[in-house]
Amino acid sequence: MGEKRILAFDFGASGGRAMIGMYDGETLRLKEIHRFSNDPVTVGKTVYWDILRLFYEIKQGMIKAKHDGGFECIGIDTWGVDFGLLDQNGNLLENPIHYRDERTKGMIEKSFTYIPKERFYQITGNQFMELNTVFQLLSLKLNRPELLERADKLLLTPDLFSYFLTGEKHAEHSIASTTQMMDAKARAWSDEVLEQLGIPRRLLCDIIPSGTIAGHLSDAICEELELKAVPVAAAASHDTQSALIAVPAKEDDFIFLSCGTWSLLGTELKQPIINAKSEKYNITNEGGYEGTISFLKNIIGLWLIQESRRQWIREGEEYGFGELESMAREVSKLQSFIDPDAPEFGTQGNIPRRIRAYCEKTGQKIPDTIGAVVRCINESLALKYRMALEEIEDCTGKHYDTIYMVGGGTQSKLLCQFTADSCGRRVVAGPVEATVLGNLALQLVALGDIKDLKEARALIARSQDITVYEPQGTEEWNDAYERFKKVIL
Fold it and tell me: Which of these is catalytic: 77, 239, 421, 449?
């Protein structure tokens, strides 16, 4: 066969890129052709996604891909939970609002006045997080009901971009499963949740499977960009599920850690686990390709480093991520810890100052240098991963010898080694471009070039390098873990 060229758009919370995948029947090669920042815009007290600018960047990526040799399919993956609302004419009512906006404060507790917490979790199997789609919608219902009355359809972010390209409205399964509005066992929208919370059912589109064709480029897009009407695939549109496709595991039972702005640690199951124990641990069940369930914990990830770096730039000190890691290596280890998921670390602002305040409040040594802050963040993340791993193992009744770590976080050798040390498990790190590779692999599934998840993982494993980290200093990390639990619990 000739080489097939396909185009993946991968959007993270801080940036995006367009990558060409070149498939020769045996291996999948990557070529980055466009990269851009993703900068939230605050107007008044509201934080928005600059969605039209991001769609402009999609067009730029398509133009560059055309001049680079063309492409036969497009797939888009993004972060979860956020959405745009369309009116009856298919027009966007307003810029989508960022999940870090404060409009959802108090909405979790408010939701329990409509539907009991236990019943809510029993249906959806989702981790309760204020940023979830359902709580954004509850906020609109209570505070801006006129907007919901004007809305005809809700499109989650990757589905919104797909609609801009094709004119087709749908809800891809993996991204729909992040909303806390799906019945995890039925793999369908939950009428009970929608009715109890007063969310109009008409807003939600039909759910379509991952790894299928969602539509073709519209005549208007083809005319504007002088392109052929190539298919647009519904890959695993939630970036976590795309990344999971690329995990190079051969065993059926494994732990994955998808590490970027967010960290997602969990395992892959055939059926959801929804019981009192998983509810207590606040573990989520999200839908993946081939009907799999990702039983995982959402943990704040490299956002803490990214936002700290932005603060240091504001103060006139600009360092690359490699420089920050070098500074962290030079300071004393296991001195002070934070709970990465504490509420004060979830919003934009001066993260280093908040870290120092947290350490002072909990009676720990205050990290007073840039290197000490960076080390505190990385060690705290590694210890939080251990806690999540223990919770997952408690729920599944299984022990996992290896953690498969994928995504941009694997570029941090420091974090990879700390994860192995903290968890006392071998860490297999890579591929870095897991999300893009999973996106591309499911495009190939949609096109009929590869047949299933097993073949997709084998293809990616042949195409990418991995690095293995063995645990070190287990005893001192065990001691640190006990101190960490006292600090955060």
Answer: 239
Closest residue by Cα to residue 245 from 483, 413, 75: 75
Within 8 A by CB and 6+ apart from 470, the residues are 420, 426
Q: Torsions phi, psi of 30, nearest 5?
A: -115, 150
Q: Minimal CA–CA distance to 377: which of 357, 355, 360?
A: 355
pLDDT in tens, 104-160: 999 999 999 999 999 999 999 999 999 999 999 999 999 999 999 999 999 999 999
| Integer angstrom CA distances of residue 193 from 61, 221, 238 | 39, 37, 22
**How many Å apart are CA 304 and CA 346, to the nearest integer?**
9
DSSP state of 130: T
* Mean pLDDT calculated for residue range 14-32: 96
Phi and psi dihedrals of 295, rounded to 5? -95, 105
CA distance 12 to 242: 12
Helices (H), 21-73: 51-67
Q: Is the CB of residue 283 less than 8 Å from the CB of residue 392? A: yes
432 CB neighbour count, 10 Å cutoff: 19
pLDDT at residue 1, as a whole number: 55
Strands 231-234 and 74-77: parallel
Distance CA 252, CA 257 (A): 16
Q: How many CB atoms lie within 10 A of CB 230?
A: 18
Q: What is the pLDDT of residue 464?
A: 84
Q: How far apart are CA 215 and CA 170, in angstroms?
A: 10
**Percent of the chain residues past pLDDT 70, beyond the cut:** 100
Inter-residue long-range contacts of 309-313, CB under 8 Å, 24+ positions, other chains counted: 311/349, 311/350, 311/351, 311/352, 311/353, 312/352, 312/370
Q: How many CA atoms lie within 13 A of 355 on its CB side?
A: 29
Closest C-alpha among 344, 246, 240 to residue 298: 240
Residue 324 CA neighbour count, 13 Å, CB half: 25
**Side chain identity at 399, as an amino acid letter?**
H
Extract the tokens encoding 486.
């006292």
Assess whether 394 carries a catalytic annotation.
no
Here the tokens at position 206 are 């039909």
Q: How many CA atoms lie within 13 A of 230 on its CB side?
A: 21
Angle between helices 370-396 and 474-488 (to 10 degrees): 90
Q: Which of 2-11, 172-181, 264-273, 459-468 has the lowest mean pLDDT?
A: 459-468
Contacts of 462 (CB under 8 A, 6+ apart): 26, 27
Peptide bond into 431 cis (omega under 30): yes
pTM greater than 0.85 (yes/no): yes
Torsion sign over Cα 395, 396, 397, 401: negative
